[in-house]
Specification:
It is built from 11 helices and 5 strands, in the order αααααβαβαβαβαβαα. The chain is an alpha/beta fold. Strands 2-3-4-1-5 form a 5-stranded parallel sheet, sandwiched between helices. It starts with 12 loop residues before the first helix and ends in a 16-residue tail after the last helix.
C-alpha cells in the first residue's frame, strides 16, 4: 500500500521481521511474569518501533497519516476526528500513544544509534533529501565525533565509479565507513553496478563496515537499491522551533562551553530557521529557492 503513495516507500518483509526480532529480544530481558502486562508491553513496543523505523523513511505529511493509521490499529474503537490543522492531527496521535511516541521516526537526531545498532554491514543507509538540503555533513560530523575512518566521494562523474567500487571493497574488509554523495546523478551506475556490488557482499563484510548513500529525492532511484537500504527522508523541519532544535542537535555537546559562542550558535540557528521557513512561500518575497543548508 505504501508503494502506491511514493516510489520511495519500498519496505521489504525482512525489515518487518527485523523489527519483530528486535522487540522479542528486548522483551526477553524483562522480568515481568503477568502475561497480560507482558502482551501489553510487547504491543506498545511494536507500535513504537514500527513508527520509529518506518516513519524515518516517510515524507512529513505521510508520517502523520501513518501515525493516525497506527493509532486506529492500536485502538480500533478510537475515532479519528476531522481536524482543522496539522497540529490537531498530531495531538490525536499523542492522545493515543503518549507525547513521547516517535511518529516522526528515529532519524537524523539518532544517527549514531541507527548506525551502531539499527543497520548492519550489508544494509546501506540511504539519506534522501530535498534539493538544496544536503545531509552529508551530518554523517561526516558523526564520523569525526566517533573517530571513525570515513571515505567520502562525490558521484557526479564517471571517474568516481571505479573509485567508489574500490573503496567499498577495501572498507568492507577493513571495517571502515564509505559515503557515496549525490548518487541521483548516476542512477544507471546504481542500477547496473552498486546494487550488484552490495548483494555480492553477502555475509562476508567486516561487522564494523557501514555504507552511507546521499541523494536528492529522485523518481529514477532504482527499486533494487530502495529495497536493500534503510532509508531516512530528510526534509527541512516545519516551524521555527523544530528547525532550531534540529540545527542545535547537529552540534557536538562539548562545543557549548562558551557563552559568547552559544549566542552565536543561537543567532545562526535563528537565521537558518527563518530562511528555511521563508522558502516555503517562494515565489512570494523571493523568486528562487536558495540552497541554504545547516
Amino acid at each position: 500500500g505504501l508503494r502506491e503513495l511514493s516510489f520511495l516507500y519500498e519496505f521489504p518483509a525482512k525489515m518487518f521481521m527485523d523489527i519483530l526480532d528486535h522487540i522479542l529480544t528486548e522483551n526477553a530481558k524483562s522480568k515481568e511474569e503477568d502475561e497480560a502486562v507482558k502482551i501489553g508491553k510487547l504491543k506498545k513496543m511494536l507500535f513504537s518501533e514500527m513508527a520509529a523505523r518506518i516513519g524515518r523513511g516517510l515524507q512529513y505529511d505521510d508520517k502523520i497519516v501513518f501515525g493516525l493509521l497506527l493509532a486506529k490499529l492500536s485502538k480500533p474503537d478510537t475515532t479519528i476526528c476531522p481536524a482543522q490543522s496539522t497540529e490537531e492531527l498530531i495531538q490525536q496521535i499523542a492522545e493515543s500513544f503518549g507525547a513521547d511516541f516517535p511518529w516522526q521516526g528515529r532519524a537524523l537526531s539518532h544517527l549514531a544509534e541507527i548506525t551502531d545498532s539499527g543497520i548492519g554491514p550489508t544494509v546501506p543507509l540511504l539519506l534522501c533529501s530535498a534539493p538544496g538540503h544536503d545531509v552529508s555533513g551530518r554523517v561526516e560530523a558523526m564520523a569525526r565525533e566517533l573517530r571513525k575512518d570515513l571515505a567520502a566521494i562525490a558521484m557526479g562523474s564517471a571517474e568516481g565509479f571505479d573509485t567508489a567500487e574500490s573503496l567499498i571493497t577495501t572498507a568492507s574488509k577493513r571495517g571502515t565507513w564509505v559515503m557515496l554523495k549525490n548518487v541521483h546523478l548516476c542512477v544507471d551506475w546504481l542500477r547496473e553496478t552498486l546494487v550488484k556490488k552490495i548483494q555480492s557482499l553477502g555475509s562476508s563484510p567486516h561487522k564494523d563496515f557501514r555504507l552511507f548513500i546521499t541523494s536528492e529525492i529522485h523518481p529514477n532511484l532504482p527499486t533494487g537499491l530502495l529495497r536493500l537500504s534503510d532509508k531516512i527522508v530528510a526534509q527541512a523541519p516545519t516551524g521555527i522551533q523544530a528547525s532550531l532544535t534540529r540545527f542545535l542537535s547537529s552540534i557536538a555537546k562539548d562545543r557549548f562551553d562558551s557563552t559568547v559562542r552559544n549566542r552565536l550558535y543561537l543567532l545562526l540557528g535563528w537565521i537558518h530557521a527563518v530562511i528555511q521557513e521563508r522558502l516555503r512561500f517562494v515565489p512570494n518575497g523571493w523568486s528562487e529557492a536558495y540552497e541554504w543548508t545547516e
